Every structure is written in structure tokens, then in C-alpha cells.
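Re: the request from the purification team.
They wanted to know what the chain is likely to look like in 3D before they choose a buffer screen. I agreed to run a prediction and write the result into the notebook, where they can find it.
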Amino acid sequence: METRINDKFSYIFNRNKGVGTLLFSLKRNEVLNLLGEPDSVDNDVYEKNVEETIRFHYKKKGIMISFSRYDGVFDPLKIYLQKLNIEGSNIYNLNYIYVKEYLQSFHQKKQITFKLEETNDGAEQIIFYPNIGLTLWYENRNLIDLCVEKIQ
């Protein structure tokens, strides 16, 4: 019997492993077994037979899974979410300033060196936390997207 993600999916972040039962090590067929058929799929080919990205969109679950392949080798998947539970708080429910403070505290609690890289392009900000594999996109200080990935 297969285990599928349903409305009770935890969205709990597990640094360098994944979110809930969605693990960075999953292959495409394993994601399909876990989540079922996606609502839509898109594929970007940057250089034929060299580099491509395939994305599975699960709109009702608020999840998008991205698989990137370069030179025949697939990178660990990236998980884009509309909710993420870190240490009991949904990051989407926290304001811009508090998220930074909260994640700094998370780093300290887990004894991880706190580092962030911030890009500010007018109304849009991108904040990347490389030591936990988390990227946040803001528009006018409102969180519009987030991605978790395996630390390289």
C-alpha cells in the first residue's frame, strides 16, 4: 500500500533531508507515487541533451517539485511550497522582519553558522539561507514564494 500526501501533510522542514515525507533524494517516479499525478508539468530545455528542468505542479497542495538535469545527471530535487513549518511556526504566517529574526534563532538553536544572502531589486527581495537550503522571495515585503533544497 502506497503512502500518499494528503491534507494532513506536515510541511515540517528537515534541514538537508526535505519537507515532511518529501525527501530531496526522491526520484520522479517516487514523487509520483507519493503525490500522485501533478495538476500540470512544464519542462525547460536550456541546451538539448545537456541541461533541462522539469517541474511538477500540485496546486491544491501548494507544492511544486523541480528536477534539474545537467549533462545526464539529475540534481537533488527542489521543493517550492506555500507553507513551511520550521520549529512549530509556518514561515508564511510571519512578517518579513520577524522571519529573519526567527531564522537567526533557528540557526543558533541548531548550532548552524548563520548566513544569509540578500538581493534587493526595488519591490522584490530574495533572501537565501545557504546553510539551511532555504530561499524566500518577497514582493513589497510580502512572502510570495519559498524553496527548500539540499545543501550542496
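For the purification team: The longest strand covers residues 40-47.
Please add any questions underneath this entry.
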